[in-house]
Structure formats: structure tokens, C-alpha cells
Amino acid sequence: MEMELYSAVVAAAKSGHPDVVKVLIRQGAPVKNPMKNSKSAINWAAEGGHTEIIELMIKNGKGDVEEIDKNGYTSLMRASMNGHKETIETLLLLGAQTLNIRKKAKDTAKSLALKNGHKEICNIIEDYENV
To answer: What residue spans do the ANK repeats cover (predicted)?
Structure first.
């Protein structure tokens, strides 16, 4: 049952359905993969730029902005490589660290944004680092 609820949360987070995520969280659905072999719901939401879902999970104590997925990415890294400006700004305000390094490839959120052509995201991260 836990895996089914987790799958439902992930599907809603990936698809950008905050109302569904809210109902599932209230029913006790896990937001982290019980088998620990994939991304968490917050990582999926960040990858898709679903800022409202990230805020919902954090406010309900159901998400960790620093959680690292099986490939070594944080939510900030996922949002950076996909160019999601609002999500980046929200994650930074929620305490995401910009200097986390993906061990396998030595990437940071800023380097991933740059590799994927998101110069504006690099600038946002640099501005945040310089505060």
C-alpha cells in the first residue's frame, strides 16, 4: 500500500497537481520512495518546475530541499538544469544550498544551469551566493 501511495504522490508531483498532492499528504502518503531507488516527489516537482507543490511539501514537513536522489542531484540541481526560475528562487528562499556538488560528475546547480544554456539561472544563483 505504501508504494501505491508513493506512486500516486509522484504522479501528481510530476504532473503539477498540487490539490492531489495535498489530499495524498493528508492521507499519509510517503513523499520519499520507500525503496530508495529513485527520485523523491520533491525532486520530481523541482524537475518539472512545480513550485507550488514544493512549497506545499515543505510547509507540511514532507519534503527536504537538500534531499539527494539516486543520481546525486538535489532539487535545486534538477530545477537548475531545466531552467525553472521561480522554482530556483523558491528553493533558495527555503534554504537550498548552492554549493552542493554531485559527486559523480562534480556538478553544482550553477554548472548544470550553464551546461544546459540557462544563463539567467546562473545569474540568480550567483546573486544569491553573493548576498
So the answer is: 71-97
Whats the size of the chain, residue-wise?
A: 131
* Number of domains within the chain: 1
- What stretches of 49-108 show up as alpha helix (H) in DSSP? 51-59, 75-81, 85-93
Cα separations (Å) of 52 from 19, 27, 87, 112, 129? 10, 19, 9, 23, 24
Residue 11: CATH number of its domain: 1.25.40.20
CA angle in degrees (0–180, nearest 5) for 54-11-95: 15
pTM of the model: 0.89
pLDDT of 1 reads: 60
pLDDT, mean of each 10-residue run, the chain (131 residues): 76 94 90 73 94 94 86 92 97 88 80 96 91 73
Residue 37 CA: distances (Å) to CA of 32, 34, 59, 95: 10, 8, 25, 25
CB within 8 Å of 116: residues ≥ 6 apart: 80, 81, 82, 83
